Amino acid sequence: MAKTSLVRDVAAVACGETLSCLWDGVDRHLSSARTSITLATDDKPMFPGFSAQWTDKLHFIDPTSYGTIPVYRVLDYGGNIINSSEDPKLDQSKVVEIYHCMTLLNSMDRILYECQRQGRISFYMTHYGEEATAVGSAAAINPDDLVFAQYRETGVLMWRGYTLDQFINQCFGNCEDEGKGRMMPIHYGSKANNFVTISSPLTVQLPQVSLVRGGDIGRNNGYAISTPSHEQYRGDGIAAHGPAYGMATIRVDGNDIFAVYNATKAAREFAVKENRPVLIEALTYRIGHHSTSDDSSTYRQDSEVNQWTGASHPIARLKQYMENQGWWTEAQEKEWKQDTVNRVRKSLERCEKRLKPDWREMFYDVYEKMPDHLIDSDDSDWPRVRRSCP
Amino acid sequence: MFQAINNALDIALGKDPSAIIFGEDVGFGGVFRCTLGLQDKYGKDRVFNTPLCEQGIAGFGIGAAAAGSTAIAEIQFADYIFPAFDQLVNEAAKYRYRSGNTFNCGNLTVRSTWGAVGHGGLYHSQCPEAYFAHTPGLKIVVPRGALKAKGLLLSCIQDRDPCIFFEPKILYRGAVDDVPLKEYTLPLGKADILLEGDAVTLVGWGTQVHVLLEAAQLAQKELGVSCEVIDLVTILPWDRETVCNEECFLHLESPIQRVTGFDTPFPHIFEPFYLPDKWRCFDAIKKSVNY
């Protein structure tokens, strides 16, 4: 009863000699408390919201006192399945389709990036090094699963059949852009493809997605613009947060398309069946600049970037796998690459020529119906925009 | 008024199987009793508590509305709506516009208690409507009593744009009207002329409408001045036609007076001196007519 004697000591000091007359009362109180404490130690703590055990050792939980969450992978850097029981056994046509999607995205990135450098579009963000996370996860879920994305998940839309013209229309903000030219480039959205329109404020989509109760997928690419991970958190990445919120959690190699695919497929099944969230942290490396408004060489070395452009690259790894299977040859590679470039160039030619939307589109869709303070509805030249501020 | 709100929510849930109510402590009936009995009647999957996180509540509501549900979110006090400011201003207000009307969160209504209550101090008294009034895409509504509260709240819930419905909490128990039990709606964007008059126009909303009515009576009695009293009802988009000031520049016979709270945080002990009470309003009327 170490605690009780401590209390008694404190009480004794507080009472002092002059208050000894009160001591009898304190002592009596402690005696009755002792009985109940003895009973309580046999019991579990009863604090609401916890199912913990008591401990009589003072011990801080330190992040180094338990292991870090391992990174799940299926393919090694040579494109071989490491553990055959984890082989998703996708058939040749699906694997080639996945490869086509990743590489088409890559070609679109290269050309639109150059387009921005030439001032033909105002802004662009590439997906270099992160092609597998979006395409792999998209291939593992159903086409009618609602997707809320940040801005480096274009591969999901591409997998779902969004066309090059649709992407490029958005980047040019021309009259065929579903978004009516109102948003910056790469802020895609498609009702038909169940892909909720992207917006710039970060993480706002997170609570919005809660309703869908699907898997939350975090891309951890090592950087937020120039800020490296070690300046963003001191814990074990994003995945370590999952269990704290009571979420089933896994960390995967985001450069391994099959690992991403397997984890997302299992997460979807779990989330739908159990009605519980899942957190997937996909580790990748952001090979490109953060955006066209960023020069990443000012905060990281080329040598660091180069480590990620070789055999560990998601496209290179899947290509190696396909070659190992006898599903892909250098000749096919050459022909397909040229084909993707031609397709993007042709689409670009078409989209760049299209007119911008009617300027009056600026005033629609603020509300469902245009309110009076935006227009003079009684004007015959409707919708003539009000010239004065309300 | 809290019973009228409760009745409106009951009707909304009864009529629309996709409607859900959520927020902090709404499950047991809400800290102002506005959701009393609704969880028992409609179940925990339609009326439920959320974690204490306003940005999460607003974001969750937007997601629910975007996915097709009628989402009725509660922010416990308007003073605590600021953590949700980003979700409401950057997301809710712009959802339809930025997606070219392919996605929207028009089925979202955010209810929040609002205004002075006698002893609320800095964080249980605020009126943050002006912050939101600068946000195209939102509708902002403040009722002045029970009858208005029910009709306007049902309009907000059915409206196809995201609405913020501020409930003057001092009126929860204070305002009593004969309120029809059946469903009815009242138009958004429409002001009410409560008192006809020809000398001065007084415009306010929420609790302040009652102060203006008293000030108008005082002006009639003391100065023989007949005041028109208008309840603006909707802050955004507001009813220009009824209030009509822009086009009446040439008809203005004196400067427009604004009688408001002071440019200080809302104080605890000094509340009676802080509020734009009927005497301050009366003084402004006097100044106007004597100009």
From TrEMBL, chain A:
<feature type="domain" description="Dehydrogenase E1 component">
    <location>
        <begin position="219"/>
        <end position="357"/>
    </location>
</feature>
<dbReference type="GO" id="GO:0003863">
    <property type="term" value="F:branched-chain 2-oxo acid dehydrogenase activity"/>
</dbReference>
<dbReference type="InterPro" id="IPR029061">
    <property type="entry name" value="THDP-binding"/>
</dbReference>
<feature type="domain" description="Dehydrogenase E1 component">
    <location>
        <begin position="100"/>
        <end position="209"/>
    </location>
</feature>
<keyword id="KW-0786">Thiamine pyrophosphate</keyword>
<comment type="function">
    <text>The branched-chain alpha-keto dehydrogenase complex catalyzes the overall conversion of alpha-keto acids to acyl-CoA and CO(2). It contains multiple copies of three enzymatic components: branched-chain alpha-keto acid decarboxylase (E1), lipoamide acyltransferase (E2) and lipoamide dehydrogenase (E3).</text>
</comment>
<dbReference type="GO" id="GO:0009083">
    <property type="term" value="P:branched-chain amino acid catabolic process"/>
</dbReference>
<keyword id="KW-0560">Oxidoreductase</keyword>
<dbReference type="InterPro" id="IPR001017">
    <property type="entry name" value="DH_E1"/>
</dbReference>
<dbReference type="Pfam" id="PF00676">
    <property type="entry name" value="E1_dh"/>
</dbReference>
<protein>
    <recommendedName>
        <fullName>2-oxoisovalerate dehydrogenase subunit alpha</fullName>
        <ecNumber>1.2.4.4</ecNumber>
    </recommendedName>
</protein>
<dbReference type="InterPro" id="IPR050771">
    <property type="entry name" value="Alpha-ketoacid_DH_E1_comp"/>
</dbReference>
<comment type="similarity">
    <text>Belongs to the BCKDHA family.</text>
</comment>
<keyword id="KW-0809">Transit peptide</keyword>
TrEMBL record, chain B:
<dbReference type="GO" id="GO:0003863">
    <property type="term" value="F:branched-chain 2-oxo acid dehydrogenase activity"/>
</dbReference>
<dbReference type="Pfam" id="PF02780">
    <property type="entry name" value="Transketolase_C"/>
</dbReference>
<dbReference type="InterPro" id="IPR029061">
    <property type="entry name" value="THDP-binding"/>
</dbReference>
<dbReference type="InterPro" id="IPR033248">
    <property type="entry name" value="Transketolase_C"/>
</dbReference>
<dbReference type="InterPro" id="IPR005475">
    <property type="entry name" value="Transketolase-like_Pyr-bd"/>
</dbReference>
<dbReference type="GO" id="GO:0007584">
    <property type="term" value="P:response to nutrient"/>
</dbReference>
<dbReference type="InterPro" id="IPR009014">
    <property type="entry name" value="Transketo_C/PFOR_II"/>
</dbReference>
<feature type="domain" description="Transketolase-like pyrimidine-binding">
    <location>
        <begin position="1"/>
        <end position="174"/>
    </location>
</feature>
<dbReference type="Pfam" id="PF02779">
    <property type="entry name" value="Transket_pyr"/>
</dbReference>
<protein>
    <recommendedName>
        <fullName>3-methyl-2-oxobutanoate dehydrogenase (2-methylpropanoyl-transferring)</fullName>
        <ecNumber>1.2.4.4</ecNumber>
    </recommendedName>
</protein>
<dbReference type="GO" id="GO:0009083">
    <property type="term" value="P:branched-chain amino acid catabolic process"/>
</dbReference>
<keyword id="KW-0560">Oxidoreductase</keyword>
